[in-house]
Design a protein that fits this description.
Layout lengths: L1 H16 L4 E7 L2 E7 L5 E4 L2 E9 L2 E4 L4 E3 L9 E6 L4 E2 L7 E2 L3 E5 L6 E3 L10 E4 L6 E3 L2 E5 L8 E11 L10 E7 L3 H14 L6 H13 L4
Parallel strand pairs: 4-16
Antiparallel strand pairs: 1-2, 2-3, 4-5, 5-14, 6-13, 7-12, 7-15, 8-9, 8-15, 10-11, 10-14, 15-16
Length: 223
């Protein structure tokens, strides 16, 4: 299946590799499908791997990337999109992300009470609440913080696994998606880690995704 999808999606992967961007989603029936958009909202197609780079800011290893940007009209106005972690934080050990990190990654949006942290075991965390605006979309940048870990000057990579759910009636949770966070890492190295996750961790998509959402994700524009 992966070889079939690779043939269909080669142009999408090429464009995706050239641009960082935010997490987005489309609906296929009642299924939420994660996609990627540029900072300007231009769609880059279906995606389950995203990236961010922590910097030492205000006494914390912090970033507000990736953001979450949903096209207007995608979701029900007044509903709440919810992000939750599904596994412990993994750390690159030189050959894989099998190592469970001693650190944690938290995500906070708005008040400090609206915050989640990667769990200590492979269970679901609480929900980070992302209210959908009156247009049926949103554009938010949670505060991502690496906690309980001091990397010093060395380079590290961490892997977060998460899913979306929604208070909108009838919608199914998204498949797991992944965020690779780098510390003291350059852009090229971070992209290489993202490629590793795509090739070795993300399950192969089904034919319905290849044939339908790839095409829709490429041509869709912000209304």
């Amino acid at each position: 299946m992966r070889s079939v999808c690779a043939a269909i999606s080669v142009m999408v992967w090429a464009s995706r590799a050239l641009a960082e961007g935010d997490i987005s989603l489309q609906l296929v029936g009642n299924q939420m499908i994660t996609t990627k958009v540029t900072e300007d909202g231009v769609p880059l197609g279906p995606e389950r791997v995203f990236g961010g780079a922590f910097s030492w800011i205000g006494g914390s290893w912090y970033t507000d990337e990736p953001g979450i940007r949903i096209d207007r009209g995608t979701l029900q106005a007044g509903s709440v999109l919810q992000l939750y972690f599904t596994r412990t934080l993994r750390q690159w050990n030189g050959s894989s992300f099998a190592l469970v990190s001693a650190g944690r990654v938290s995500a906070t949006f708005g008040p400090s009470s609206n915050s989640i942290v990667t769990p200590a075991t492979d269970t679901n965390s609480a929900n980070l609440l992302l209210p959908v605006d009156g247009s049926g979309g949103l554009h938010d940048h949670p505060d991502w913080v690496l906690e309980n870990f001091d990397p010093g000057i060395d380079t590290y990579f961490f892997l977060v696994e998460a899913r979306f759910s929604s208070t909108q009636s009838g919608l199914l949770d998204s498949d797991p998606f992944y965020i690779v966070f780098g510390v003291n890492a350059d852009e090229q190295a971070l992209e290489q880690m993202e490629d590793y996750v795509r090739e070795n961790i993300v399950p192969a998509p089904g034919v319905w995704l290849c044939a339908g959402v790839f095409a829709g994700g490429i041509v869709r524009r912000r209304r």
